[in-house]
Amino acid sequence: MSFQTPNEIQTxxxxxxxxxxxxxxxxxxxxxxxxEIYLNEKGCFLTSHKFxxxxxxxxxxxxxxxxxxDTPTHTLLDQNALEYxxxxxDFKNATGITRMISQFFVPSAELEMYRGNLKTVxxxxxxxxxxxxxxxxxxDAIPPQLQLPSLSKVLPTPQPDYxxxxxxxxxxxxxxxxxxxxxxxxxxEQDEVFKTSAFQGTQGMLFPFLTSECKSFTGKPFxxxxxxxxxxxxSLRGVVELFRLSRRQTELHRKVLGDxxxxxxxxxxxxxxxxxxxxxWEFLIRSQTAAERWGTYNFVTAVYHGWAPRHFARxxxxxxxxxxxxxxxxxxxxxxAAVLKQRMGYGVLGGVG
Length: 353
Prior knowledge:
Shape: globular
Protein name: DUF7924 domain-containing protein
Pfam families: DUF7924
Order of helices and strands: HHHHHHEEEHEEHEEEHHH
Radius of gyration: 21 Å
Domain DUF7924: 86-319
Organism: Aspergillus carbonarius (strain ITEM 5010)
InterPro entries: DUF7924
């Protein structure tokens, strides 16, 4: 048995308080009703569109729901551990819930690969990492944008508790060369300023497609929904911009382009892209039925094995068809410089969203 000194207890308490404060700050902007108004203004909706997703997409998602994988044993979701979950979970903060159940709710994509279970696609994950390389919704998606200090922030940079996308080495050297003009950079040849990209989340993650936010059982679930909608709005816009470069954006109409607790899809309306959600499963981790408790785990694993390779093939085909970027980027950079000069003249340096 080990005992903690008063100083160790104080340090542990301070660390826990700092973690809770950081989590609260990260969520604060999403509590305001202004958040959802802003997301709607940017074409991101937390509801389903009246036409929904395409029938074949709906059928494919329901097939994923039926897939069953080997699940861990001797875990919190065992029948003999349910009393602990049902008794103690309500008293845990977000950090405690993450420690208790996160791996049983959203399994690790990288672990699935390193175990040799996932061989059809390469994935990369991030854990509570800010999407510093992702272009805000407030500015043009193409070309890569200067990251400027903001005088008025509506929403902070997304920082999902967990996210999955594709690593750079998932793509061929030729594909990476085609993407290069549109990727972010922390060092440009001339201006040496940081630039963001619509195609990135973190520096090493291209085209993120899954995000997850963890809250306490007594917290505000709508905050997590808004955080996911913000992250997915940025992610889906990147896919749409990729297909716009390839002149194939109409192919994405009512297609599922991202996942969290909902299927996230794009709808073209009057030539504009808007992003909607369809709820496919409920979080039933306290159910008395093992199949329901492991339902989310199985579905997310099915996304890695079934949906992600299909999505990757779609992205790859669009990248292969990107035309020569030089002329497009020269024109876009000239326009960007003019806008930047105008903004700086008025003393406004843009926003983050």
